[in-house]
Amino acid sequence: MSPIEPNNNNQPQRMDFIRQIIAEDCEKGTWGGRVHTRFPPEPNGYLHIGHAKSICLNFGIAQEFGGKCNLRFDDTNPSKEDQEYVDAIIEDVRWLGWDWEDRLYFASDYFQQMYDWAVELIKKGKAYVCDLSAEETRQYRGTLTEPGKNSPYRDRSVEENLDLFERMKNGEFPDGSRTLKAKIDMSHPNLNMRDPVMYRILHATHHRTGDKWCIYPMYDWAHGLEDSIEGITHSICTLEFENHRPLYDWFLDQLGIYHPRQIEFARLNLTYTVMSKRKLLRLVKENFVRGWDDPRMPTLRGLRRRGYSPEAIRNFCKVIGVNKFNSTVDYALLEHCLREDLNKTSPRVMAVLNPLKVVLTNYPDGQTELLEAINNPEDLSAGTRQVPFSKVLYIERDDFMENPPKKFYRLAPGREVRLRYGYLIKCQEVIKDSAGNIVELRCTYDPATRGGEAPDGRKVKATIHWVSAAHALDAEVRLYEHLFTKEDPEDVPEGQDFTVNINPDSLKILTGCKVEPSLKTTKPFDRLQFERLGYFCTDPDTRDGHLVFNRTVTLKDTWSKIQQKGDTE
Ligand code: ATP
Ligand code: MG
After folding, report:
1. How confident is the model at residue 559 (pLDDT cuts 50, 70, 90)?
2. Full set of structural domains in the chain with CATH
3. Catalytic residue positions, numbered
4. How far is the CA of 375 from the centre of ligand 1 (A)?
5. How far apart are CA 302 and CA 88, in angstroms?
6. Contact predicate 140/186, CB 8 Å
7. N or C: which end of the chain has fewer CB within 10 A?
8. Ramachandran angles phi, psi of 473, nearest 5°
């Protein structure tokens, strides 16, 4: 079976080691030809771009191999989990473009089955109730170089274990006083196999099961059971679980139940980004950002608000591929994938972020003409629109220099430039205020150059964007830089943490920007290109005629440059 192109993206799906394994399994008929994966988030935070890698891998494989992928909440730790996160995760996976049909599952729905299986292990003499504290358990475990010691409670009778475990479940004991442990081998070279904890006592209200349970299963015990119950064929997880695989296998083998295959891959790390939910939570809680959906956050909500399209993120996940070695992906590659998509899909509009007034002295007072502008030169089916032109315009302050250096070809005293979709104009006079600041340019336009070409064939070097002052709308524009000043935010002096590397200038707010009137009807999350300035996205703060735009990314593609340099070296 060969993988097919999902989602009609432009990047073909590459064969990686996981797809190789699955293709071989299909060929051999290992799972009766079935492919069934799952994406198992813990609802203790919002999804981030790292999760997108896992989502695209699991759902992508299911799609390519004609299989299924479940969305399953691994909700086994009520102290950190919340319905708010469940709802957000559902929304975000859907936004990314994936569909689990009717297969939305919760680990908490399996609590009774897990409990029954634990009782079975106790009966088989493979699990025991232990009264060691968490600290004592750590001490008994030993180290990588030293074997552990058997717990003094290890040889309790099956009857006593059954009795104590039931009483644990019934809420007779305080938090932390007892655990249920697997009876494996305290001198096993793999520390995870040294009598790992299966259940702990936690009197906490669960967002789904309420107060029904006061013992909760540990990840290693629960995860394989969840996979087994759902008939998963390939349980794909990140590399740090490689050392847990023997335990995953042990539990399923002891119970003799359906046994999926765990496969590990390297998690995504990105430069200038922290990805752990704990750290992202700190950024939100300590007000380093405005919320989980702050456009500087690597969360899917943050990226969405920033202007990322699901297609761009899915393409990025294809481009990075999967492998077995931890590495860090250059943020510029993510932005490259973003530009590739936005270039094809974003309507072009004109906006002036830092306006300078231009008066066309020879243009008739009170006249407005409509100029035809192309909505997207990359997609002519997007059509054209009419942009009003009149006597007073705004141009970008940066597009004028009173004393231009050699290579500056834009507007300057006595110099002619082309207005995008409009006329050639020539700067005749510079008006300044009493402090010497330039406040206005007086220019003339050449009526014979409508459309931008001079009939006499004279050349102008630059084309600049503009808006008509009488028609323009006011807007607030938010410009973003990386949230961290260092490629590796964890690179910090002794005793400090990643927050010392936060970029104090990661958000710059511009007010008094001017945008063309077609943006009157823009809606939150619309993605646009402001000509010559970059890609922008309408922010959800836009309301009641107050327009707010986020700069998604500039036009300059540093990744392509890096690549070209690499090619010629
Ligand atoms: P964190 O370390 O941020 O708390 P997590 O791994 O505990 O993340 P889960 O909700 O358990 O978060 O993750 C759900 C799935 O997403 C898991 O299968 C996990 O392996 C995967 N995942 C999480 N982070 C990444 C990442 N950076 N790259 C790839 N996959 C990831
Ligand atoms: Mg996890």
Report:
1. confident
2. 17-107+222-336 (3.40.50.620), 111-220 (3.90.800.10), 351-464 (2.40.240.10)
3. 42, 267, 277
4. 40
5. 12
6. yes
7. C
8. -105, 145
Pair 220, 240: CB distance under 8 Å:
no
Tell me the pTM. 0.94
pLDDT in tens, 300-337: 999 999 999 999 999 999 999 999 999 999 999 999 99
What is d(CA 227, CA 181) in angstroms, rounded to the nearest whole number?
Answer: 21
Using one digit for the tens of pLDDT, what is the confidence trace for 397-424?
Answer: 999 999 999 999 999 999 999 999 999 9
Nearest partner of 480 among 510, 502, 506, judged by Cα: 506
Say yes or no to pLDDT of 355 above 60.
yes
> What is the separation of C-alpha 105 from the centre of its chain, rounded to a whole number of angstroms?
23
Residue 278 has pLDDT above 90, yes or no: yes
Which ligand is nearest to the Cα of residue 266, counting in written order? 1
Distance 264 CA to ligand 2 centre (A): 13
CA distances from 309 to 220, 295, 438 (A): 35, 13, 40
Of the pLDDT bands very low, low, confident and very high (cuts 50, 70, 90), residue 2 is very low
| Token pair in block for residue 238 | 């990140």
Q: What is the DSSP letter of 288?
A: S
- Residue ID of nearest Cα to ligand 1 atom 4: 277
Q: What is the pLDDT of residue 336?
A: 97
Per residue in 35-87, pLDDT (tens digit) is 999 999 999 999 999 999 999 999 999 999 999 999 999 999 999 999 999 99
Our mutation pick for probing the ligand 1 site, out of 82, 223, 232, 238, counting the most ligand atoms within 8 A of Cβ, is 238
Q: Which residues' Cβ are closer than 6 Å to ligand 1?
A: 40-42, 50-51, 53-54, 237-238, 267-268, 275-277
Confidence of residue 556 (pLDDT cuts 50, 70, 90): confident
Q: What angle do CA 323, 324, 326 make, to 5 degrees?
A: 95
Ligand 2 center from residue 112 Cα (angstroms) = 22
Give CA–CA dist 436/428, Å, rounded: 18
DSSP helix/strand/coil, 564: helix
3-state secondary structure of 260: coil
Which ligand 1 atom is nearest residue 280's CA? Answer: 3
- Ligand closest to Cα of 92 equals 1
Give the position, in ligand 1's atom list, of the atom nearest the Cα of 238: 20
Distance 28 CA to ligand 2 centre (A): 31
